[in-house]
Inverse folding.
């Protein structure tokens, strides 16, 4: 009697979780780039939606032919699985926990400088449900004074970073380079002159102030006393929206010019600077590494 037992290979289903991973990633990304009926600026190329559709196609291919691909004994398959595992974990962290961003412009000087790299918390304001305007686990939402990253409402493929000045229901007035919240003037403390070079290398002279909110939060802003680019604003923030401004008040494209940020466009809150490179002087700003964003 032959005691040898014939080995029976068990069916593998790992192609299914690969397919699920790509499909979920594509759906989440495509839902995040959905414009919700808003206009998109001319000239912007929709790289985000294209990548999202590509992820969906790959996911469907794995459902269809994935077992044939992944069950093969080949070195390239082993490398692929290792890479997908590493990339999958990185994308999970980047999508739901924390994401790095670079500061390309001077709209948040002196708080954030051109060349700063910072981590942004993706869970502080919860997460948007794809293809909807609803957010999960949002809690109390943003607080006045938070520095937030959000999808630019006129072109959701672009991320902006500004300071949240007005919460839903707040009346925001900005006139003669002074800010009023709910008809109360925000306190200012003169911190002297401030000279910086913008992203084009041009030297700009400004005045620095500490702006103090009613809840005690304080941060630095810049104004140019003799500039004539002042935008008079008198707005009440609608429900589910936020009024944002750059700390560099005379060099910021913000809510004074294009309106409010819907809650579903929020990406996250700025946490800390992990790298800072001075492109003008080709040096590392060691003193800024690890500093919290306030």
């Amino acid at each position: 009697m032959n005691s040898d037992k014939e080995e029976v290979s068990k069916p593998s289903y790992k192609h299914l979780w690969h397919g699920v991973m790509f499909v979920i990633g594509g759906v989440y990304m495509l839902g995040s780039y959905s414009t919700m009926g808003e206009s998109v600026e001319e000239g912007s190329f929709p790289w985000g939606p294209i990548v999202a559709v590509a992820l969906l196609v790959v996911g469907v291919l794995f459902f269809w032919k994935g077992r044939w691909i992944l069950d093969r004994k080949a070195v390239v398959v082993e490398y692929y699985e290792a890479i997908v595992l590493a990339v999958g974990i990185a994308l999970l962290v980047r999508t739901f926990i924390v994401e790095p961003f670079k500061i390309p412009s001077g709209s948040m000087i002196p708080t954030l400088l051109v060349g700063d790299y910072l981590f942004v918390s993706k869970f502080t304001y919860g997460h948007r449900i794809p293809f909807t305007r609803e957010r999960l686990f949002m809690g109390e939402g943003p607080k006045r004074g938070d520095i937030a990253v959000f999808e630019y409402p006129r072109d959701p493929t672009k991320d902006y970073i500004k300071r949240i000045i007005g919460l839903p229901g707040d009346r925001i007035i900005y006139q003669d380079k002074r800010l009023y919240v709910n008809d109360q003037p925000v306190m200012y403390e003169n911190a002297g002159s401030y000279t910086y070079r913008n992203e084009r290398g041009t030297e700009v002279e400004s005045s620095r102030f500490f702006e103090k909110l009613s809840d005690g939060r304080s941060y630095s802003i810049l104004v140019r006393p003799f500039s004539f680019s002042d935008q008079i604003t008198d707005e009440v923030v609608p429900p589910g929206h936020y009024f944002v401004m750059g700390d560099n008040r005379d060099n910021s494209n913000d809510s004074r010019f294009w309106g409010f940020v819907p809650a579903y466009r929020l990406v996250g809150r700025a946490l800390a600077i992990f790298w800072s490179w001075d492109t003008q002087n080709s040096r590392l700003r060691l003193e800024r590494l690890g500093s919290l964003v306030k």
Q: What stands out?
A: Residues 5-9, 35-44 have pLDDT under 50 and may be disordered. Helices lie at 14-33, 47-70, 75-96, 255-258. The two ends are 79 Å apart (CA to CA).
